[in-house]
Structures are given as C-alpha cells and as structure tokens.
Design a protein that fits this description.
Length: 492
C-alpha cells in the first residue's frame, strides 16, 4: 500500500480524500466549501459530460443556457421548491464595492448600490427557466420543449466533501415541457434509463432504479425517480434523479398552452440532473488502497507506455519502436501517453500511474524489442503479462473492454451480496450496525415511521425499486401491514 494513501480499513473517509488529492482530481480552494477541479479530474468530467451529452442529443434534447441569477420573487413562486432550497441559498444584495475610509486599502459594500430586488444564485434553475418558458409556449405546436443545460449551481452546504458535497458544483439539468401528463412521465423515466445506462455501461457501477418516498422527493416534484449505487463501505449514494413535476411549475408561472381542442391547459413538466458527484461515486465504487481505479471508457488516459533503458542508444531504439506503436494505438481510438521523461525512474512512474488509475500500463525495454513483446499491467487486478507487439492495438482494445466488464461484474457482485432482507427490528438494526449495504424491508408507508427509523439508525429509504414485487408483510418498526419491501441504507 502506498504510504501516501490511508488504508480503507483504517479510515475510509481519509482514504477517499487521499485518493482525490494524490490522484490529482481536485484540490481545496480559498473559498470555503468549494473545490478546484484539476486538469486530470476535469478531463475525467469532460469524458463523462461528452458521453452524456451525446446520449441526451440522441434522445432529442438540445442544449441552452440560462442565467446564474434568479430574482427572489421568481424563486419564491413555486412554494415547495423555494422552501426546499431556502436554507442552501446564497443571495446577491449589492452590485458595487468602494474604498473603505476606515481601513486604508480595503473595500466595503457600497450602501448606495443596493439591488432593487435581491438575486438568488441558482441552487437549481426551474424558476428562471419556467419564467422563460412562459414566453416560448402558446400552443400545442410549441411542445414538447426538450432542453438541457450544462452549468454550475450553488448550494451553501455547511459540511462539505470534495465532489460529494460542495458549495458550488458542476452539473447538467434537463427541463422539459409537455402537452400531457403521460408524455412527461415517459420523459422522466426515459432520462432515468439514460442515467442508468451511462452509470452502468460507462462508469461500470451497478445501480438500482426506483422512486423516492414523499419525504425524499425533490421539492416541487410529484414523483422523483432515482438511481442508487452502493459504495465499498456499504453506504448508498444517489447517483442521479429525474423528476415528474406535474403542472406545479406551470401553475406557479402561469405557463398555459392552447390544445388541439382549442382549450387552455397548463403545461406538464420534468427536470433531471447529474453532477460532478458522479466522480465521487466512481472513486468510492472501484478504487483500492494503492490509488484510483478508473474504468477504461471514461479514463482520461487508457494506456501509458513507460520505457526502460540504459543509455541513449537504447532510448533511441525504444523511441523509434514506440512511435509506431503510439500511431497504431491512436488510430484505434485509444487514449495513450508515452512517458519518456527523464526526471523520474520507471518504478516511480509505475506508482504514479497506478495512483491515477490508468487502466493499462505498458513497459518496454531493449530486450522486449528483441523479443517483439511488451509487458502489460492491468490496474484493476494488478496482473502482469507479456504479449506480442503484433496487432498490439487489437489486443489492447480487447483488454480494455475486458477490464471494463470485469470492473462492472465485481461491483455488481459486491452490490448484490450487500442486499439483505430484514424481517424484524433487531435484524434491521443488526445489519445497519454490522454489515451496512442495502436492507430490503417492509415499511408501513407513513412519513412518521420513515422519520423515526432515520432518527434511530441514520438509515433512509433510498428508493422503492421500480421492479419491486407485491408481498404482504409487516413494517419492521411498527408492525403495521405493508404490501412491498423498500430499500433502506445509510447514505452519502
């Protein structure tokens, strides 16, 4: 284990922070609760963003951009939404600074530059977007509107963790408008499936698709659909949400349209989003005590080649051969780097790229060129082998696909083994204390019971799975009748 990285078993929280910092994904910032996303971390986000963006566009969505600032009166228009985010809002009250006469060289807020109306820095964009949609929508011919925006939002969190919970973070938020309730529900489920496909097929993280309880749903939503993932410490993480908003925002902003039957009706809405929190999920789902373990499909670097040589003559020989190999790999669409820097020894480079989670490392020396072979090291299993240089790109391409699948299979096996049924309160509390993971248990359907379980165990209902089967039972806390099991877990 790297001395720079705390072991998971010793301190999981510190292990996570060590990986983010030592893996060069992000750093702390001068602004409390905010982070600096470093180039390597941003490259990872770009790969995730680009794939999601393609999936959004493939389902008919287009990108737009709306203001960062929301007039307070607009923010207040949908009461449940405003109330739900009120405690996290940052507010702009003035627009100018001036020299402070009492403190030389310092600035103060100019009291004469007070805004006529205070501005909320967006914690989410429903208010500003639906105020805009009012001017875009008059008739059924204007529907549906399928808009997404890539943006930053601010939620003034008191307790923050890099990527998982920061005062400012990057995300995308889709906001769609529809002529019927059925269309809007179908859209919300469609986007949930897009998220699930991305997280499972690109991030190699298995998820459970479900619907939130009223206590846990998005403020202002009729229903919130979610994907829930399980981290290695047995805690759940909400990886994405898609909301059926009904007509709540249309009514709040008076967004009506003329139907085909020539009647005025309020528009039906959805919103859906994922954020840089996905990077936190990626780290905690796959990584080990040596550093990051990144799935090949979204890793900033898929392959790194490290030369091993003595003297300039061997170096020139290796450089010449690697030039051809690099060309071959790049033609195959593989993201590859040749690290021939002379300021570090090969062993140090191996450790650094291991820490950064590069899926495949290739070592090549003069003897390897004689034998027409290279040494291959997998990051996920740390297995090493020698393969021929012939058709190297095809071999590496197949290996990357195998690594991607193996990572998903391992995470799914862990997840599946961590879903445990509980039929009594003692079983439930024992699992929470000793095993963690998802606990499948009956609940009587009341918010009071849900809150009491949370108060006693810190476990929440993560979701009611979409594929849940009807099953008569008794609530684990109250003993009242229940017709299905829900999934509980402690969560991030």
């Amino acid at each position: 284990m790297s001395k720079e990285i705390t072991a998971r078993a010793q301190d999981y929280s510190q292990w996570y922070n060590d990986l983010i910092i030592k893996g060069e994904l992000a750093d702390y910032s001068a602004v409390r609760g905010c982070m600096v996303i470093k180039p390597y971390g941003f490259a990872l986000w770009e790969n995730m963003r680009d794939q999601l963006d393609k999936m959004f566009k493939d389902t008919g969505h287009v990108n737009a951009y709306f203001p960062l600032f929301v007039p307070k009166s607009l923010f207040e228009a949908e009461e449940k939404n405003a109330e739900g985010f009120a405690k996290e809002c940052a507010i702009v009250t003035h627009y100018r600074l001036k020299n402070d006469p009492a403190r030389k060289g310092k600035l103060m807020v100019d009291p004469e530059a007070k805004l006529e109306e205070e501005l909320v820095i967006r914690p989410t964009s429903e208010a500003i977007i639906w105020n805009t949609y009012k001017t875009w929508i008059q008739s059924y011919r204007d529907l549906p509107i399928l808009v997404n925006q890539w943006a930053n939002v601010v939620r003034w969190e008191m307790r923050t963790r890099l990527f998982l919970r920061t005062a400012e973070f990057l995300w995308q938020e889709g906001h769609t408008a529809h002529a019927t309730s059925q269309e809007a529900v179908e859209e919300a489920v469609r986007m949930l499936n897009v998220y699930a496909e991305f997280v499972e097929n690109w991030m190699a993280v298995p998820v459970i698709k479900g619907v939130k309880t009223p206590n846990e749903r998005f403020a202002g939503a009729v229903d919130t659909y979610c994907i829930e993932a399980l981290m290695q410490d047995g805690k759940a993480l909400q990886a994405g949400t898609s909301h059926f908003l009904g007509q709540n925002f249309a009514k709040a902003f008076d967004v009506q349209f003329l139907t085909k039957e020539n009647k005025q009706e309020f528009v039906w809405a959805t919103s859906w989003g994922v954020s840089t929190r996905l990077i936190g999920a990626l780290v905690m789902a796959h990584s080990d005590d040596e550093g990051l373990v990144l799935p090949p499909k979204i890793a900033p670097l898929q392959v790194v080649i490290v030369p091993i040589y003595k003297g300039d003559e061997q170096k020139q020989l290796i450089d010449s051969r690697v030039k051809d190999l690099m060309h071959e790999l790049k033609l195959a669409g593989i993201r590859v780097k040749y690290d021939d820097s002379d300021n570090s020894r090969p062993g140090w480079k191996f450790a650094e790229y291991e820490k950064k989670g590069v899926p495949v490392r290739i070592a090549i020396g003069a003897r390897d060129i004689e034998n027409n072979t290279v040494e291959i090291a997998r990051r996920d299993t740390r297995e090493k082998s020698f393969i021929s240089m012939d058709n190297l790109s095809e071999q590496i391409f197949n290996l990357l696909e195998r690594i991607q699948q193996d990572m998903f299979d391992r995470a799914k096996k862990f997840r599946d083994e961590s879903i445990t049924p509980a039929n009594t309160w003692d079983e439930f509390t024992g699992l929470i204390a000793n095993k963690g993971g998802f606990i499948s248990a009956h609940w009587d359907g009341t918010s009071e019971t849900e809150e009491k379980i949370k108060e006693l165990t810190k476990a929440t209902i993560r979701c009611i799975p979409l594929d849940v089967q009807e099953e008569a039972g008794a609530c684990i806390l109250t003993g009242k009748p229940s017709d299905k099991r829900v999934l509980f877990a402690q969560a991030y």
